[in-house]
Amino acid sequence: MYLDFFSINAQRAALAITSNCCQNLHADEFHFVADSLSLLANRLTQQDKKCVESVCLAFSRLVDSFQNDPSKLQGIASLELLTNLQQLVCNISLDLYRSKIPAV
Fold this sequence. Notes:
Blueprint: H1 8-21, H2 31-34, H3 37-43, H4 49-65, H5 70-76, H6 79-100
């Protein structure tokens, strides 16, 4: 995925389109997204919050679409995704903590 070569606005648009495409997928359509899951998981480490939000929405929609299919859920929940999500949550928690500490 050569998304980094585009402007941030183009990246945001592409990831918003991607998240919309992940909505209401059927089991026989999983192969359309399966090869891109690793690339999407990597986008969670990006600094742009709107891009990260679109990626989170894409994964949320995928989980909703395949909530009754354990094998597809396992395919979605890769170690890479879980690691990046954990890092994202830790960073958000740390930022919230820092914002509550009064300046000295």
